[in-house]
Amino acid sequence: MANAVFHQAIWILPSHHLQNSGIHQEFGNVSVKSISKGFKFDLGLSMSRNGGYSSSKGNSFAVEASTSQNSVVDPISAPSNTSSNEFQKKSSEAALILIRHGESLWNEKNLFTGCVDVPLTKKGVEEAIEAGKRISNIPVDIIYTSSLIRAKMTAMLAMTQHRRRKVPIIMHNESEQARAWSQIFSEDTMRQCIPVITAWQLNERMYGELQGLNKQETADRFGKEKVHEWRRSYDIPPPNGESLEMCAERAVAYFKDQIETQLRSGKHVMIAAHGNSLRSIIMYLDKLTSQEVISLELSTGIPMLYIFKEGRFSRRGSPAGPTEAGVYAYTRVCNF
Ligand SMILES: O=C(O)[C@@H](CO)OP(=O)(O)O
């Protein structure tokens, strides 16, 4: 398994894969349908009209940002009839793009970051834009990010490169007022939007008392092996922080509850998150063991593509960039 993980991460011909997977056929088919009390995106998200909190002309995406918040959305509803082979075809296959955020100011300084909310460097901004070029032809119906600015910046910057030119809009479901005040009053405009759901469950693992410390100095002080154990082992937490296992308990649970549900209904999903929250999700997707995940490293700003089909995930690796044949999404090296 480990060999497969590390040696098949090249994705050379995205359009070819998309054609083979049928994903290309879905591109551009997002539609909005009127329903009795509002508008419903084809991607299964309810856009509540009026919603009880605002003027009669207001529309808003009503999307649950996390399992623990109140309202959200209409769960994705299964088709009520066999109406369409169209739907069945659609629901049988979906694209899942994972992107670790671009380089942050603390990546640059080699500091443990965890849940500290640090922005991207200029290089990180460029990485995010380059990631966007790699995925510009892959359909995206809905975007999930962590609640941290480096992941949000990465998602937004990547989407500036997307061929469809849709506008990613962050959903504000933290209160009724936030929801009401962020309503959109044009169906046409809504058709040109992609909902972005932020979820703390996708945040970087909480690094405890290592947050803000220099990685090299920490290795010098506590020993390289000990620090490597804290950084990469599955079940050993750093002092007062989360182990990868603890991080998986919320990140993978959120993925299964919220994101997999979207994929099952045929929606194409992008996730912008972090080295360790994504390692835990990839461990689930690729069925890695707790030994294998130790060697799993993700580069900043490199997107990875999975196809979800008939309940199974298959990894396509990293879509090729415009100026090269392919790129490794994973590396073997844990840098200090
Ligand atoms: O500092 C962090 O939060 C993470 C990711 O940047 O570090 P590590 O490489 O140890 O997972």
What general outline do the C-alpha atoms trace?
globular
What small-molecule ligands were found?
A: 2-phosphoglyceric acid
Strand order of the largest sheet: 7-8-6-9-5-11-12
Number of helices: 13
Low-confidence stretches: 1-22, 24-88
Distance between the termini: 26 Å
Could you give the count of β-strands?
Answer: 13
Sheet having the most strands? 7 strands, mixed
- Amount of beta strand: 15-25%
What is the residue-mean pLDDT, rounded to a whole number?
78
Radius of gyration: 20 Å
Share of helical residues? 25-40%
SSE succession: HHHEEEEHEHHEHEHHEHHHEHEEEE
Which structural class matches the secondary elements? alpha/beta
Describe it for me?
- Helix 6 (122-134) packs across helix 7 (149-159) and helix 10 (215-222) packs across helix 11 (224-232).
- The longest helix has 21 residues, at 244-264.
- With 336 residues, this protein is an alpha/beta fold.
- The model is unreliable at 1-22 and 24-88 (pLDDT under 50).
- It contains 13 helices and 13 strands.
- Bound molecules: 2-phosphoglyceric acid (2PG).
- 2-phosphoglyceric acid binds at residues 107, 112-114, 204, 207, 231, 275-276.
